[in-house]
Amino acid sequence: MGYFSDIYHGIGTLLTGMRVTGKYFINARKGAITQQYPDNRDTLQMFERFRGEVVMPHDENNEHSCTGCQKCELACPNGSIEIIWDRVIDPETGKKKKAIDQHIYHLGMCTQCGLCVDACPSDAIKWAQNFENSVYDRTQLTRILNKPGSKVRAGVEE
Amino acid sequence: MGTATLEPTSIKKGFKSEEYFINMGPQHPATHGVLRLLLTIDGEIIKKVDPDLGYIHRSIEKMCESNSYQQIVHLTDRLDYLSSHINNEAVCLCVENALELEVPERVKVIRTILGELTRIASHTLWWGVMGMDVGAFSSYFYGFRDREMINDIFEETCGARLTMNYNIPGGLMQDIHPNFVKRVKEFIPHFRSKLPEYDRLLTGNIIFQKRTKGVGVLSKEDAINFGASGPVARASGYSCDVRKYHPYSALDKINFTEALDTTGDSFARYKVRIAEMWESLAIIEQLIDNIPEGDHKVATNAVIKLPKGEFYQKVETARGEFGVYIISTGTKNPYRVKFRSPGLSNLSLLNHIAVGGKIGDLVATMATIDIVVPDIDR
Ligand code: SF4
Ligand code: SF4
Known about the structure:
The structure holds 2 protein chains of 2 kinds. The longest helix of chain A is centred in the first third of the chain and has 24 residues, at 3-26. The radius of gyration of chain A is 27 Å and the shape is elongated. Helix content of chain A is 22%, strand content 21%. Chain A is built from 3 helices and 7 strands; from the N terminus they run αββαββαβββ. In chain A, the strands form 3 sheets. Chain A has a 3-stranded antiparallel β-sheet, with no helix packed on it. Chain A has a two-stranded antiparallel ribbon with strand order 1-5. By secondary structure, chain A is an alpha+beta fold. In chain A, a hairpin with a 6-residue loop joins strand 3 (81-89) and strand 4 (96-106). Chain B is α+β, with helices and mostly antiparallel strands. Chain B has 2 domains: 1-55, no CATH class; 60-377, Orthogonal Bundle (Cytochrome-c3 Hydrogenase, chain B), CATH 1.10.645.10. Chain B is built from 16 helices and 8 strands. Chain B has helices at residues 7-12, 60-64, 69-76, 84-99, 105-133, 138-158, 180-203, 206-212, 220-225, 230-234, 242-245, 266-288, 342-348, 350-354, 359-369, 373-377; strands spanning 19-24, 36-42, 45-52, 167-168, 171-172, 309-317, 320-328, 336-340. In chain B, the strands form 3 sheets. Chain B has a 3-stranded antiparallel β-sheet with strand order 1-2-3. A 3-stranded antiparallel β-sheet of chain B has the order 6-7-8. A two-stranded antiparallel sheet of chain B has the order 4-5. The longest helix of chain B has 29 residues, at 105-133. Chains A and B meet through helix 1 and helix 3 of A and helix 3, helix 6, helix 7 and helix 8 of B. The structure holds iron/sulfur cluster (2 copies). One iron/sulfur cluster (SF4) binds at residues 66-72, 83, 119-120, 122, 124-125 of chain A. Residues 54, 75-78, 80-81, 110-116 of chain A line the site of one iron/sulfur cluster.
């Protein structure tokens, strides 16, 4: 190719590319925008399976379904879960039974692998979808999942 | 600068050229992570490239020795994080083979679909970053836009965008989300219409072509000698697709052509990756309509103990051949785990193909080798 046809060809390829960008510049609303975070914080819906943080749901009687079986603690690859438990006397049967004192979850160490939630036989823990987890001090990332004064729901057996 | 005796002549003859060292990285955007390249250069010409590794070494292989087989899987997310799903699959296949466990057809098909989606996601990200490395900023946004759709699919089904950990030994952690098939079917035509845009935007661009054609040429012999794999090797004409030669999961029933080129330069590697995206779309299309019914996993023991012996499984990630080698002594932890990562072998040939080129060419070469540093350092 000659010198000038080279230049024309070169400019041509640049214009082809600019046609694409120009198209989206004019139709910016149609498919060019993915998410406008953080402007859309109020309306942002995370997917229900999104693994943000492990939480323990409690019902209205302040009861959870964690029996203290420690399967989640065992499944965790990096020791993010610590169960402090004791044997208490079950008021109904009068027998001694394992019960949690504290279910401690270190969010700062958690790799969000999901093995604990998968391992829990009584679905006592589940994933919350919040992802804005930054704090100023890492001690705030250690959470006690069972609420104060809560107890295990009657009927949930290990 | 030179000694006093040299100075008069050097001034007369213009500047005296002298080799010197320069650091590229460990925090250089073109090294795509914390990789330090020690360059010996003479003016603008590269004489030697010494990659210096270890900035993101986390001793994952050693950690595996104290983890159970279920726990190992999530560590492989953190190797090549852009192919995390395929890495997970490799470990699971290795463990399943060792246990002689037959997983349901449904699992195989879903694994393959997710694997190909991962490949497309990885290549779209690479395409965007590649464009940016050689100076085309808009490609970055277009690449990420299309990757976002795949990430949504992953997020909905697997629960994460990068570190999936969706495969478990014996199957999948959960069944696919009800929206999965619908979303994948939306994605295929969408991406089919966007891929030609990639060509218009970048492939035909004269500046891009001038910067990549004939740059970083790798011959087929050298590709084999250096143990290259993936698009890097295939761009040199070395047919090495693990999906073709050692099919795993549902890939044995799939028709697809291996993307090959013969020139071996940066532009060839670019074209191979673009062709691979088309192929991945074709693979997904063959599978998405007939995902067999069935369970999403088979039950394994809560404590998995592999039989005594050595087990190896290789898969094709977006960067090449990824291998998992497990030595088991019959306990619940592996005795030794070794990962064969494509990035390390592909990086090892960088010195070979970059010498003699300019620094700017090195950036283009690095971009088409497409390394992910955590995969190299482990
Ligand atoms: S998600 Fe994984 S790392 Fe986090 S607490 Fe559960 S098991 Fe441990
Ligand atoms: S959260 Fe589940 S697995 Fe963990 S101790 Fe409680 S019941 Fe057991």
